Amino acid sequence: MSAAEGAATGAVAAARDQPADRAAPPRRGPADPVRSLMHRHQELCARAVDALEIAAGLEAHGVTDRTAARFRHRDVFSLAEELYARVPRADRDTAPADRRPPVPARRSRGVRAALQLLPGAVCTATVAALASAGTATPAVRSAVGAAGALLLALAVRLAVRSGPLRRRHHGSGPRATALWVCWTAGYAVYGDWLLAQLLTGGPDLPHAAPRAAVATAVALAFALAPAAGCAHWFAVRARRAVAASRGLEELAGRVRPLLPAATLLFLAALVGLLLGADAAFGGDGRTALAAAAALGVLLFLARLLTVHGFPEAAATGLASAAALEYLALTLVLIARLPGLHPLDAPVEALTGAAGPAAVPAVACAVAALGLLGYGLRALTGACAHSPAPFGPADPTEGHRP
User: Fold this and answer.
1) Is the pTM of this model over 0.85?
2) How distant is the alpha carbon of residue 76 from its chain centre?
3) Which of 220, 372, 381 is nearest to 288 (CA)?
4) pLDDT, tens digit, for every residue of 184-234?
């Protein structure tokens, strides 16, 4: 055996005698921990407009800053930036037709403002038409009122389908949401009269003529304009907070004060409208004003949650208020049965202390506080302020500051 062969044989024997853990050190984890995340969210990363959209999508899938630490990143935003840099962008020109962002005609701010003021104008015109038909037959007045209500519903639909109140997320919310909105709005106009009639043994149908809360109806119709302005104010500043934040906790701290501020701004504008409508058409007292203000705030918060992707929570809040109002009317009717008179004691005590308007005031205030508490948690995440998956209806609305 030569000297070289002897040296090689000795080296092999020495390697065979070494422990296994020294020959092959254990793997402490994948060399590229982000690769699995890239494959899992390939479509999200490929179609994202920027890293912020990826961060919103990751948060929606349950990825937190603690989860990002397992991928060797300090927060979700840093992880999203790496994913955005590493995943190639999808070719938008070859995307399916139903995935391409629509490019409708650009609407001017003046046109959107006119659409938001249209419900108030239609409601005022309906009130004027009913006043001019005061000497007409009940059938004519009913026809005028029905036509006005239909036109008002169409105007409201136009107002919420454009501008800041337009829902930008794909999919439809609960179908009963429109029913709850119609119930709460209808109760605000006719509910106090109906409850007062029920408490006194009425109404004497068909001879009883319903008395509408005209000031409340006009103020709520005009409130769509300040609601759109406050929703735009909230959305712009929330997106700025997303762009400036470096973590989910920092983002929540920046966004959380914005929701109460936007709600208070809208409430101040609504109270001004209610006071003006009371001066022009005559009001029903402070309790009625408080009930209308509570309903306005409830509708504003419900629409804000819907716009930012939480329609189920909005429907739940509206349904809660409608259920409480319906329960009050039902208890008064059930109490007319023999032996069930004590059932309407809570309603009588409440209305006796503050009037019939106290029922919708309490119902809408409780529901609004519930939506506000939910919004303080739901609207502080990045996923609540991500751009629409199919593009905004107005190119100016999808711009990130």
Assistant:
1) no
2) 24
3) 220
4) 999 999 999 999 999 988 787 666 778 889 999 999 999 999 999 999 999
Contacts of 167 (CB under 8 A, 6+ apart): 160, 173, 306, 307, 311
Rounded distance between C-alpha atoms, residue 224 and residue 149, angstroms: 16
Tens digit of pLDDT for each residue in 74-88? 677 777 777 766 777
**Spatial separation of the C-alpha atoms in residues 286 and 190, rounded to whole Å:** 17
Cα separations in angstroms, 80 against 41, 83, 89, 243, 355: 11, 5, 14, 13, 55
Instruction: State how far the Cα of 359 lies from the Cα of 346, in Å rounded to an integer.
Output: 10
Pull the structure tokens for residue 204: 């004497």
- Peptide bond connecting 96 to the previous residue in cis, omega within 30 degrees of 0: no
In terms of C-beta distances under 8 Å and separation of at least 24 residues, what long-range contacts does 201-208 make, across chains too?
none
- Amino acid 270 reads L
Amino acid at 40: R
Q: How far apart are the first and last CA of the chain?
A: 79
Helices (H), 61-108: 65-70, 76-86
- Measured between alpha carbons, how far is 118 from 155 in angstroms, rounded to an integer? 6
Evaluate whether 294 touches 364 at the Cβ level (below 8 Å). yes
Scanning 245-383, the segments in alpha helix (DSSP H) are 248-255, 258-281, 286-307, 311-334, 345-354, 358-378
